[in-house]
Amino acid sequence: MLEPSNNAELPAIPGKRYFTIGEVSELCGVKPHVLRYWEQEFPQLKPVKRRGNRRYYQRQDVLVIRQIRSLLYDQGFTIGGARQRLAGDEAREDVSQSQQIVRQVRTELEDLLKALRR
């Protein structure tokens, strides 16, 4: 079940809001104890915990788990290497969002300056 060749055979993610650990286990091809371990190792994984400490994963969590699975099982990363890779991806997204916000604020300020000069 955990062979790299099975990654392409993962089922489609249903259009639900929350998934139990058992559902995520089936969707991602990893056992529940592995998911609980990955929660400790990857800060990106923060499932919502409700009644009796039950975990409820959202769609974004499932996508992150599939990415972690691919990094570890298909691409041969270690836990530490996969953690760094995911952190690097997050940092690039943060920089991109910051640059977009700066461009938007700059455009708004230029528009405001044009309006004040009239």
Per-chain topology:
Layout: E1 19-20, H1 21-28, H2 32-41, E2 48-50, E3 54-57, H3 59-74, H4 79-117
Antiparallel strand pairs: 1-3, 2-3
Structural descriptors:
about 60% helix; single chain; three-stranded antiparallel β-sheet; mainly alpha; Multidrug-efflux Transporter Regulator, Chain: A, Domain 2; disordered N terminus; about 120 residues
Structure explained in plain terms:
This protein is mainly α. It has a single domain, classed as Multidrug-efflux Transporter Regulator, Chain: A, Domain 2, CATH 1.10.1660.10. 62% of the residues lie in helices and 8% in strands. The chain contains four helices and three strands. The protein has helices at residues 21-28, 32-41, 59-74, 79-117; strands at residues 19-20, 48-50, 54-57. Strands 1-3-2 form a three-stranded antiparallel β-sheet. A hairpin with a 3-residue loop joins strand 2 (48-50) and strand 3. The longest helix has 39 residues, at 79-117. The radius of gyration is 20 Å and the shape is elongated. The model is unreliable at 1-6 (pLDDT under 50).
